[in-house]
Amino acid sequence: MKYSEAKKQIEALSNKYSIDMEGNYFHVKYKIYEIAYVYPDERYKVCIWSKKIFSKLTFSNKLYMILSELAMTPLDERVEGKKHYVKIQDGNLGYLNINSLTGKMMIDSADEIGDIKTKFTDKGIEQLKQRDDIPLDWDKVRFEEANWPGLHC
Questions:
Q1: What's the alpha-carbon Rg for the chain, to the nearest Å?
Q2: Model pTM?
Q3: pLDDT (tens digit, 9 = 90+) per residue, 122-145?
């Protein structure tokens, strides 16, 4: 299970759950309180802060199953493929943007808003390089790591 999949499943249980990847641990919070985490550098290790409180939480059994599945996942399989921004020119508006609906290219900020895609895997970048409608000199662009600090633990 990937960190992103676990995050999505946990947050779907209740809007009171949230995930924080601070310090490279997969922290689960209920409201504002940390209730559990999964170790990023060891398999099969989940920490529950208070079993008494945890057992009373909404969907606690499902939550524990998700955390267990994540903890069982080999460390290198928990992360998404690294993503990169394609930096075309200097400044805050110098990033490759692709409209995911139309496929059209533009240069703008690194923000992914709506249908605009700005983060690309290595495979995605290779596919972009093959497109005739993206007139870039790929030897001159820069690639910046785009993963959320924590999701690439």
A1: 19
A2: 0.58
A3: 889 999 999 999 999 999 999 998
